[in-house]
Amino acid sequence: MANIGTHLGPWFDPYVVKGESLAEYRPQVLTDVVAAGLASVEPVVATESEVATLAALCSQRGLQVASVFVPIPLNGVDWEPAANTVLELATLAKSAMGCGLVTVSPACGDGRDSDGKSDEQIIHQAEALRWLAGRLDRRGVQLAYHASPEAMQFGAREFHHMMAATRNMAMKLCLDVEAIYRGCGGSRIAVQNIITLYGDRIGSVHVRQSSGGTLTEYLVEGDVDYAAVFRQLQRFDFSGPVYLATGRGEGTPKTVTLIESHRRSLRYLQQVMKVKA
Question: What is the C-alpha radius of gyration for the chain, rounded to an integer number of angstroms?
């Protein structure tokens, strides 16, 4: 079964809230990841210098980098500069860290994600993803599309068009289970149907949990039925990376450290996935 790692974004949330420089805390965050018992990470990257720094820091700690995560708007008429940025970051990540997967989370870029993207914006975004998938494939890197909860609104028009428009391309899906559940109004059936429709295209999985709509501090039984999710993924022989993405939202308890919350999440997920420690 798949390798369990962690998406690094939530580890930096305490510093983001304080408005502090994230670069200063990268060494400590990665040391904490190792202390939590995790051996692989998915870092969020925006610049080539970040990729180079992370490559050195992860190598020093024996951390594997199976994928990098790039949040970037691709829905404008002039999407090519942003797409080129992704292409160059992914190329460097493969060279520096042996990373063969880049996950793109195409935010709206104008602060209006909650209103949904227009048909024109959706068409431009699909063009960008097709362009990226083809060029990355030629460089030995796979593209994965990460859908936000907003992409699942309005009949999931954005999400389904991204998948339909790239069905003959080398593009995978980063299955953010709780984001799909939440974006579809709290629906386990929606999660089940997404896996049924696109299970053979899933390249990675993000896991977090909520209870009654509030994010939990670590993985427990809750709104998302992860046992059912991984049983379904097994039917597609999924073997890609699975990333803990257990963030803290409004109302989330804060009773343990991030290290301990990830330790508990890891134990829970190993049990659900029946993976040996």
Answer: 18
Task: Report residue 81 CA to chain centroid gap.
Answer: 22
**Coil vs helix vs strand at 104:** strand
Give the global pTM.
0.94
Dihedral sign, CA of 37, 41, 44, 45?
positive
The helix (run of H) or strand (run of E) holding residue 177 is helix 177-183
87: amino acid identity, one letter: L
SS (H, E, C) 117-138: CCHHHHHHHHHHHHHHHHHHHH
Provide the 8-state DSSP code for 44.
Answer: B
For residues 234 and 238, give the distance between their C-alpha atoms in angstroms, rounded to a whole number: 6
> How does pLDDT run across 43-88, given as a tens digit for each residue?
999 999 999 999 999 999 999 999 999 999 999 999 999 999 999 9
